[in-house]
Structure formats: C-alpha cells, structure tokens
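[stage:ingest] chain + small molecule (zinc ion)
[stage:ingest] validated
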Amino acid sequence: MLTRIKGGRVVDPANGRDGVGDVWFRDGRIVDAPAGDNGADDTYDAAGKVVMAGAIDIHSHIAGSNVNTARLLMPELQGAVAVARPQTPLASAGWGTFATGCRYAGMGFTTVVEPAVAPDYALHAHLELADIPIIDKATLSVLGNDDYLLSLMRASESASAVRDYVAWTLATSRALGIKVINAGGAVAFKANMREFSLDDVVPFYGVSSRAIVKTLQRAVHELGVPHPLHVHCNNLGLAGNADTALATIAAAEGLPLHLAHLQFYGYGKEGGRGFSSAAARLAEAVNATKSVTVDVGQVMFGQTVTISSDVLRQFNARKGASPRKWLIFDGDANGGGIVPYNYRAADFYNAVQWCVGLELFLLIDDPSRVFFTTDHPNGAPFTTYPDIFALLMDRDLRAQWIEGLPPAVKEVTTLASIKREYSLDEVATMTRAAPAKLLGLADRGHLAPGAVADVAVYADDADRAKMFRAASLVFKDGDLVVRDGEVTHYRWGRALTVVPGHDRAIERRMRDYYSERYGLSAEVMAGVPAAAIGRPDPFEQVPCAR
Ligand SMILES: [Zn+2]
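[stage:predict] done
[stage:export] tokens:
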C-alpha cells in the first residue's frame, strides 16, 4: 500500500530538508514520490503541520529488575504515566509496560533504549520490553563491576580476551551496546568504601576506575559497536563533581565516549551554600572534545523515583528519600538502589539542578552531540518531555519559570542570561538524526527513501508543549498507530541488537566460569533465547563497523 503524507513542513535535518512537501511510504519503508500522476492508496493531509521521523530516546529506564522494584516501592507513582488497560486487570495499574509504549508513541517516539541491564537479568528485561507495545526497544548491558572483567584486568589478560568477553556479553544478552556505571564503585561499596573516584583503585582487584573505563571503551570501539561506551561517571550528584566529569571527558583521549545524564555531574562548590552550576565549564569541554557525546538527564519539578545500579551513590542518597522509604541491594556486579525523590522548585538545590540541565542543552553548540533525556525516571518521568521542548524553544518561558525559583539560584547559574532558542530543525537533530547515528541505526531518524516509515506529524502549535505532547499522527513501520496523541492501533515492536564476532573459545570459558560459580549454564544465567519472546522475529540485528 502506497501512503502519502501531503503538504506538511518536513523537518528532516539528516537530509538537509526543512520545507513544505510530501513524505511517501510503502510496505513500512519511506519511498520516493512516484513518477507521474500515480495516486496514493492513502493520503493524509498535513497542511499546517510538522512532519518528522519518529523520535529516538537513548536513555530511559523502562524495563528490568530495578524498574520493577521501583514499581513495587512506589505504587503511588502510577498516576505519572497511567493509561487504562481494561482488557488485562493486572496491568491496568498504570506505570507498566503498556502505558510506557502508549505514552511514548503518543508523543511521536518510536524507538527507546533501556540503558542499564545487568547481563544476568537480560532475559527478564527482554521479556518485559517485549510487552511494551508499538515502539522498538534496545538495551545496554552493564559491565565494569563484574568479577569476570575485573579478574581479566587483574591478570593483565590481553585486549582480545576483553573484546571476546564484551562481544560474548552483547550477543548473549542481546544488547545494542555496553554501559559502565560508576566503574568499580559497586565493588568498592561492598568493601565499605563510601567514596570512589576516577583514579581510586578497586579493592581486591587492584585496578582503577579509569582503567576499567578505558578498557571497556577500547573494547567497544575495536569491536566496531556503533554506540560508544556509555559511561555513568563516579560521584553522581555531589557538589564539585564537575571535576570528575571533566576528567572523564579528558580520558576519552580521542576515542568515542558517551557520558550519560551529564546534568547530575554539573555541580561546582561556589556560592554561599557551596553548590553552584558548573554547566558552562562542562559545555566548554564538550564543545572542544569532538569524540564525546552526552545526554542531559534534565530535572523537572515533581515527585519521581530514582533508579540506579550505582549502589554506592544510592546508599549515600538514601536519607534524602521522599517519601521516606528506600531500597538498596547488593548483588553480583552492580546491585542497585531505589530512592524516591521529590524535586521542588522552592528548593535551592533542586532549582540549581533544573538550571544546570537547561544550561547544558543551551551551551553545548552542536545539537548532534547533546541528547534529550531526563534519565527517566531519575530526573523526571519521560512524560515531561513536551515541557522541556517548550523550555528549550522559548526564552520567555524560561524567564517565567526562573522567576518562580529561589532568588539565590540566579547567583550561581547562568541560565537567565542565555538567549538561545532551539529551532525545530535542532530539536529534530537532537531527537532523531543524531540518536540514530549514535546508535548505528542507519534506517532511522530520517525520512530518505529506504528508511523505516516511522513518522510523527505534529500540529504546528505556538504552544510547543501542547504540540509535542500529542502527535496528530504517528506511523510505526508504516502502520498508523496514533491519532491526536491517542493510540488507535496496537502492534509489537522489535528489540535492536548488535552481534560483533568473537572467538568461539570464550563460549567454553564462560560455560566453565558459570558452572564453577553458580552451578548453572551460562545460557541459563545470561542467555536470551528468541523462542522465549514467543513472537516471530523479535530481534533485529544492527550491523557493526567491523
Ligand atoms: Zn540512567
């Protein structure tokens, strides 16, 4: 079936397109306009509307054991992303898989990455992702606090031994990339260390946090995995931690490196309260370091719950829990912690955090190297995205919000002085073209012939929050799935994976390792059999560079 989206303003920065025109697709793929007078089977009038590729979220905690634990701890958050699901009572509670797919699709998002899956919990994460309707998904597998990698490093094993292990982990856990969370910090936590920075040494293994980051960065790069190592730095949330982020940026040393939720590392120690924005310094470093990309992790005011495998940080943050309940668990490798949190505009520290995120968005020049995230739900639920788009696109709106913050905030932040406003083209770069490139998804994030027909059509409303909250039309693989922000058709997406090659000998080594430590096979512990998903072709393989 040939479909035409007619006469909208097509904003497609990957192809240098921003103007009124048509988008055509057939059988789930974008196609050229047919020659001559060939009519479409289906035509959607997009006059006065904005047409973009489906948006891609590179970092949002939407599945896995920590997310489920947070749901158990915070049933009162259900309203945040609630969508009625009358046909299955158990899932109608709201903050679940079903609402996640519906809410993302309603805003024009068609691909979302869950960025923190422990390899040994990959099957559970994938089963849960498979229950999220409409959108495509992917995972990042977490390494860097795991005994196997640290043992390889302690024994000074070769780079190829590390590569084989990383490749095996990606293939077995069906991930799209590798993340490291406070490298070595979780192991240090188990040895009762409560502070851990880039050059601190992991007890028992004798390797530094920096060495872990560099080892994984190199392995991911040499395997040709498109997405660079995704780094959650040390010292999250602490005053003065901008120095840690700057040191980590410098540690990229010319190779690709992605820093997650940089806002949480944007803090100096200036001002009367010893807490200030260091966003300008960080933005300057990012602007100057072309091999580094970042996502923001914007804070928005309201109740949320922080979910992290950075067990050391979550333990230290537990006393700030609001409401006063929290859960910390040690486990193999990272463990994790769930700490509810209520960001308040009247709170000096929270207000500075809010400013830091927006400053990073606005002071990093290149929208293809700064990515749009709230680190859902850590900075805010993803349902706040439309309000953030509006803030980025309208300095008057920002000024109104700033007026409502404690006056002292202006003394330690630069946000009020920033005039920049994002254009639609820059929004499309940051949420479509750039994330597709960062993840190696050549057929997404743009609207050239051959691309997946993931298309979002928005009313060109001066109220940008309203515009991005409810897409007029959303197509996934060419199927119309959303009208006026409401899902009209349910379908199942796929999970995107990479499978770099590895030496077969690693399979035997991992079998031996798992059987010795757990008495179980590696496949049972870490494997994700396609048959478990119970649907045809649940995975789609993304090519590696070598
Ligand atoms: Zn995160």
